[in-house]
Amino acid sequence: MPSNNRRSSWVGVAALIAFGCAVAAVLVSCQSDKITGINNGPLDPALVAQGKTIFRLDTYGDETFWTDTLQLNQVIQSGVSPKTALAVGLKVDLDTLPAAVKTALQAGQINLDDPATTVTLLKLGAVVGVIGNVDANNNLTSVGITCALCHSTVDNSFAAGIGHRLDGWPNHDLNVGAIVALSPVLPASAKAVYNSWGPGKYDPRFNLDGQNMPVVIPAAFGLRHVAKEIYTGDDTISYWNRYVAVTQMHGHGSFVDARIGVNVNNPPANVTTAKLAALREYQFSLTNPPSPSGLDQAAVSRGRAVFTGDGKCASCHVGDQLTDVNSGKLHTPSEVGQSAAYAQRSATKLYRTTPLRGLYNPPQLQGPYFHDGSAATLEDVVNHYVPLLGLTLTAQQKADLVTYLKSL
């Protein structure tokens, strides 16, 4: 993949994504970024509004990669119908559709097997996280991606994949790899890697080190009071935003971190600089979703007692954010029972304690869990820690603990 200073490994293209990603967005250079991951002060409503537009609509000029290099505009124009787009997890923003279009959709009067319909949806700005420019002859002349591609979904209120936006909610239906693999310029070896990822996963290091270890697309809500983002706690939210925007989205800017041997420059840098403060403000405005209704509150109470007691969860999940990363603590792979190989690709070689926020709110939020998705359910999470920590929990205690986790 042509790189910005371009290490030619076709990889990472994609989607902003990145695991612990705080939401793709370009930031100031990692060497000079002094923003911490915590903001306890009031948010500026004007900046939040600006940041919302940036998060949803700004590509940071990454069309030069998605269009000029990958030629995905041609692929979409000729072969991606709405049914195909929905099948790979792309979402449609109901609030951008004119009333006549909604009526026609409900009446079955719009051909969802026709790629021309996809182009029309892009022209309307209706495909979440994908920005398309369409000329007077309905030719898709360029396409780019935004933070919202991976870090927004919809509530399915109109139909599956069509509804009101849920910014900050990870799109675990999104098959980034399958989308990237549609490019006609990628070699078969790269397509095989992309197609191996599956829905809801992305490898934010593949185009830099050539290894293939995809991770789960993370939530981008509840970031305001967390000191460090990404699974390995490399640095602040701003650091990871910049990493993703420049090295993965292929937006214009620079990212340098000697700890992981990355030095990427895709000028001009000023494409993104003026947008950074507003973007960060919007990110911090995205609060945790409410817990699902109908939970057994007695079980929640019992589960909380297990969490703080026999389950030993509170030894690491501490404070209001239920993570010890705010006190600077990170953990070895063996402590948390996670991959040492993946940690070695990071700056810290360690793992942070994931803040427990919005863990369960079906259908959008219901796993998988851990950086690699190896725990399909919260029950699997609990069962992972029982032998690792030498716990003795009854079946009832496990069930109650799961119910408590769902309430967070």
Q: What's the helix and strand layout?
A:
Blueprint: H1 45-57, H2 63-66, H3 72-79, H4 82-87, E1 92-93, H5 99-106, H6 115-123, E2 130-134, E3 140-145, H7 148-151, E4 152-154, E5 162-163, E6 165-167, H8 176-180, H9 188-195, E7 201-202, H10 206-209, E8 215-216, H11 237-248, E9 253-257, E10 262-266, H12 270-273, H13 276-285, H14 297-308, H15 333-336, H16 340-344, H17 378-388, H18 395-407
Parallel strand pairs: 1-5
Antiparallel strand pairs: 2-3, 4-6, 7-8, 9-10
Features:
disordered N terminus, two-stranded parallel sheet, two-stranded antiparallel ribbon, 18 helices, 10 strands, 9% strand, alpha+beta, single chain, Cytochrome Bc1 Complex, Chain D, domain 2, 408 residues, 2 domains
Structure description:
Residues 1-35 have low confidence and may be disordered. This protein has 18 helices and 10 strands. It folds into 2 domains: 45-285, no CATH class; 297-407, Cytochrome c-like domain (Cytochrome Bc1 Complex, Chain D, domain 2, Orthogonal Bundle), CATH 1.10.760. Helix content is 34%, strand content 9%. 47% of the residues are buried. It has 408 residues and is of the alpha+beta class.
